[in-house]
Protein: GntR family transcriptional regulator
Amino acid sequence: MAYRIPKYLQIKQDILDAIKTGVLQPGDKVDSESTLKKKYSVSAITVRKAFNDLINDGILVGVQGAGTFVAKKQMIRGLTSISFSDELLQQGYAIDTAIISIEEVVNPHVAEKLGIGQDDPLICVKRVRLANEEPLAFHISYIDAKKLSLEEAQDVIALKSFYKALEKRGIIPKWANENYSVKEVNDPVVSNLMKIKKGGATFYVKRTAFDERNQIVEYSETYFNKELYSVDVNIKFAT
Amino acid sequence: MAYRIPKYLQIKQDILDAIKTGVLQPGDKVDSESTLKKKYSVSAITVRKAFNDLINDGILVGVQGAGTFVAKKQMIRGLTSISFSDELLQQGYAIDTAIISIEEVVNPHVAEKLGIGQDDPLICVKRVRLANEEPLAFHISYIDAKKLSLEEAQDVIALKSFYKALEKRGIIPKWANENYSVKEVNDPVVSNLMKIKKGGATFYVKRTAFDERNQIVEYSETYFNKELYSVDVNIKFAT
Structure:
């Protein structure tokens, strides 16, 4: 009797080959369980074992009630550049920014993070980042209105970049503290902009940026599409 | 007429005061919308505005169908120590580790990450980390079986630490590459161990750890409870 590889491994390999050769593209739906059952003359359990392995490896994604899909390539954020746009361009994405609002606000909670009086006016700039025309991120940036006035903040529209608008006024962030967590979006305005369902999870980044004199220049909160975003860091261990 | 602060700000302040004084503890349910409506003689919209502000600030958490709760304090992971246990102890948590399994396995996908032959045997150690008796993390660590044998890996049970078991054999990770993303848990084994609902989101960490000669010593995948975990990094911007 000839050596035969287990059927579930054969199914896995065929799916991997289809992805490698481009027959299956990121976001494509793969054949359903019942189609593969017939095609390979196997049980549902065998198909599910192949699917589960590929889902665990991050190659496929199961969507409740909709089927199984080829995972979208996550863009990887390295930690070297202030400009996320530049990083995405380097990774070959077509990017665009939609400015949602530029307002003067009062927010004691944010003022505290900026280290200013809790009733001091802040400039709040909201924008949606699109990568290949899909919403990638919703950014909310705050800056002391004494550093950037509401009028000066209008530069964001023409420059399509909050950081370029800061740079124009001589404000150049040199380093930042970032906090990463998972946040569910319950605000319908945010979920609509991000095209995710209410209560859906996002990769959430809180950033406090500092200039060369270690003065706080910006506090921001960003919701990233969890299918499209991850962060990569190298860490050294203290011994 | 005396100056009066808006009612929703009063509600917010009273909730913040109750948290500050310890009347409301992390995880406690706050008064329902209808209770607060009566208590302050305000509309549902006013109560909701107070709740929304506090939810947006990360102070309260709304749980669909269950009510509104005081957010649990997130433990913050700095990026200095290999030993997560040590960090948690410093932050005052009572920690414990439950070893789920220690097995020899073959996994071509992981073998590739470890830089060894795809049929080479691996030691796979699964464990659940508990902080104050709640599941905080489910860790799956892989190491080349030539570096740590199945027999040697049993040390993990007595030492209650994978890294201490490595250290005993002279294997000392010096740095690591970590990738952070959001992952939904569909494996019922994992969701049961983590006490989260099927399809629930986790903070997901993939780590490749290296020794002082830059040899790969470990590849691991960890699911963190999103309510309890976040990562903090300082980043410098290239100019």
Observations:
- The CA atoms of residues 182 and 224 of chain B lie 10 Å apart.
- Chain B has a mean pLDDT of 86.
- DSSP finds nine helices and ten strands in chain B.
